[in-house]
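Re: the 105-residue chain
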Amino acid sequence: MNASIRAEVVPVAVADFVDKVHQPSDQELTAFFEEHKDDIPDTASPQPGFRQPKMVAVEFVTATYGSFVDPDAVTAEDVKKYYDEHLEEFKSLDALTGDDEKRSG
C-alpha cells in the first residue's frame, strides 16, 4: 500500500490550555464510564470505548513420534510377510482406499 498526505502542522503547547478545561467530578466520570463501558475502542471513531476486545486463547500439545510408536517394532520382513498374506487387498487402488465398497453399498 502506498499512501501520501500533505499536511500543515502547528505545534500546540497543551500546558497553555489545561487550566481552561474543568476537572470532571467523580459522578461525571462514573456516568461517562457507564455510558461507554460496553463500547469496544475504535480508532476511527471519536467516541471512547472501555470494553476490552475478545482475545484469542491458544493451546497446543507437542509430542514425539517415538514416544507413541516404536519404529523398530515392525521389520521389513514383517511388512513383506503381511503384504504377501493380504495380496488380494492390494491388487487395486479401489481396494486400498475402500472405494469399491462405497460404490457397491
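The mean pLDDT is 85.
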